[in-house]
Amino acid sequence: MVWMVGVDVGGTQIKMGVVSAQGRRVLAHRILPTRSYASPSKLAEGLSRTIEELRGIHGLPRRSCRGVGIGLPGLVDGSRGIVHQLVNLPGRWQGVPFAQLMARRLGCRCVIDNDANVVALGEWRAGAGRGTSHGVYLTLGTGVGGGIISHGHLVRGATGSAGEPGHMVLLPGGPRCGCGRRGCLESLVSTAAILRQARAAMRWGHRTLRACVEEAGELTPAVISTAAARGDAAARRIWAGVGEWLGIGVANLVNLLNPECVVIGGGVGNAWPWFSPALRATVRRSAFSLPARTARIVRGQLGVRAGVVGATYLLEEDRGGHA
Ligand SMILES: [Zn+2]
Fold it and tell me: Cys-Cys with 162: which of 21, 89, 157, 188 at CB 3.0–4.6 Å?
C-alpha cells in the first residue's frame, strides 16, 4: 500500500498523520507540542524521528512512501521549499530550506507550504470544495488564514505569499492586528477579538454569558456559542458582528475573484450556525449580485483533519519539493 505523511505545524500543536494514498484514510496520527522544538533543525529531527517511529509500529515499507507534505504557519515559498517568515515558532526561520532539511533526513520527497494554503488544498480536493475550480478558503481561529484556488490551482503570487485575506484592511485605525498593523479582517474576527468583546459584555451584565463561562471554567468561542444558544443577547450580537465583518471581507473577495465557493473552516468556524446568517446577508448586500449568487458560502468539512489531509495533496502538485 502506498502511504504518505501529512504534517500540520501550528503555534501550539503539531498534528501529524500517516495517510493512505488511496482514499486518504488516516492510518495513524500523533500530536506533538510545538514548543519542545527550539529550532528548525530540532523540529526536522523530531518530525523525522516520529515518522520513522510510526512507520515501524505500523510495518510500512520505506519504498512505498510517496513523501511528506508539511504546512507551516507563516510565509513560505513552496516551490523552492524555503521559509521566508515564521514568527510563531521558536528559532530563526528566515531563509531556512526546511523541505530540504526534511528530505535529507528521511530520504523521500518533502514539500512545504503555508498552513492555510494546505487547508485550502484539503477542502478543495477532499472536502467542501470538491469538484470546483475557483474557490476561496478561510480558516478562523487565533489568526485568519486563507487560500485561493483559481482555475484549479493554488494562487501563490510572485514570491509565494498570495492568499492572505485575513490582512485586508477593513477598518483603518481599528484594533491592533497580529501582523502589527491595524484594522485587518483578522483584528476584527480572530479569537482574541471575539473574547475581548465577550469580556466587555460581561462587565455590562449579561448573566447568561457569565453563567456559561463559570460553568465551563473559562471563556472560549465555544462558550459564547453556548450562551447564544441559551438566548444571551450579547453573545448573539458578537456572532452577528463576526458575520458582518467576515461578510464585508468575503464580499470583497467575491467581487475580486468570482469564486464558485467560499469555504469557512477553523476552530472559530464551529460557530457557523451563529455567524453564517449575518455573513450571507452581508455578502448579498455588499457584493455584485451575479458573483454573490454564484458563490456558495459553506462550512469546511474536514474539521481538525484538514491540515494533515491537505498537506498530503501538496505531493500531487506538480512543482517543488526536495527528494
Ligand atoms: Zn493584519
Answer: 157
